[in-house]
Design a protein that fits this description.
alpha+beta, globular, five-stranded antiparallel β-sheet, Uncharacterised_Ca-bd_CcbP
């Protein structure tokens, strides 16, 4: 995958989260790894910088290899 890329939040988010399902984000870079969500990415939403689990995102405007890589990661994460 090449960064940055556009993505859409593809999973339900808690109502208290300012980023919600269907929102479009710009994924800037991989920020960290954690036990619960594994890969955390830095994102831009409007003028705000935030951090978000990669497993909750669907790639937009990536080449086919990038879309497949993110999809495969999401499937792996869901079935681990």
């Amino acid at each position: 995958m090449e960064f940055p890329f556009e993505a859409e939040v593809n999973e339900y988010q808690e109502p208290s989260c300012f980023i919600q399902q269907g929102d479009k984000l710009k994924v800037i870079k991989v920020e960290s790894e954690e036990d619960l969500y594994w890969i955390i990415v830095e994102v831009r939403f409007d003028r705000f910088k935030s951090y978000f689990p990669l497993c909750d995102l669907k790639a937009l405007y990536l080449d086919d290899d990038g879309k497949v890589a993110l999809y495969d990661y999401r499937v792996w994460f869901a079935n681990r």
